Amino acid sequence: AQSVAQPEDQVNVAEGNPLTVKCTYSVSGNPYLFWYVQYPNRGLQFLLKYITGDNLVKGSYGFEAEFNKSQTSFHLKKPSALVSDSALYFCAVRDGGGGYNKLIFGAGTRLAVHP
Amino acid sequence: DTGVSQDPRHKITKRGQNVTFRCDPISEHNRLYWYRQTLGQGPEFLTYFQNEAQLEKSRLLSDRFSAERPKGSFSTLEIQRTEQGDSAMYLCASSLVQQGNTIYFGEGSWLTVV
After folding, report:
1. Nearest to B103 among A42, A103, A107 (CB)
2. Cβ-count burial of B98 within 10 angstroms (0-12 exposed, 13-18 middle, 19+ buried)?
3. How far is residue A7's CA from residue A16's CA, in Å, rounded to a whole number?
4. Residue pair A23/A75 in contact by the 8 Å Cβ criterion
5. Is residue B96 a contact partner of residue B42, using CB atoms and an 8 Å limit?
6. Would you give the DSSP letter of residue B101?
7. pLDDT in tens, B67-108
8. Over the stretch A59-91, which tens digit does the pLDDT of each residue have?
9. Is A44–B45 a contact, with Cβ atoms under 8 angstroms apart?
10. Within an 8 Å CB–CB cutoff, is residue A102 touching chain B?
11. Which of A67, B33, B46, B55 counts the highest number of beta carbons within 10 A?
């Protein structure tokens, strides 16, 4: 079965510093990976996805993610954190093939950016 | 493009009552999904539709839950005889197969069963 793991419940970073939110995956076949962000009492907003191609994927709000096949990781990164980036971040993997697109989510990582 | 719309945003109901949530997907999106999210957890898949056909239901979707998408546009999720364990946020999402199938979520409907 496809799965993702987010090993950190919370990540703390100072404003202006680079941030990394970690995600590892376990899939059979090619991985289709996603990052979403959730602000308090809101739905999930799509940030970026990896399907194929370049290992560095650029997404919304200055975020990017690095796909590493040998380490089965898909870490989310941003060069300079903003206080407004504070939110809950979810990594997800597509379950199934042939165009089937159900997502399996990790438990989430809370990002706290301090002024 | 107004995004995925869900109604109501919040619902408080007494145990044993029935509740219904409505979802309007992004226009022309042919896939529609329902997920459930409890506090401190990631969203869990419940069911999905391709146009009006319900193609998969999770084991989480007990007999008290039913979802419909009668005309391939909006969808409803009904919970009968609610239990306190049903308290959660119910997220609707949609995607268009022909445009890379990225899934876009609505703001969610919070259910509190008292």
Report:
1. A103
2. exposed
3. 23
4. yes
5. no
6. T
7. 999 988 999 999 999 999 999 999 999 998 777 778 999 999
8. 999 999 999 999 999 999 999 999 999 999 999
9. no
10. yes
11. B33
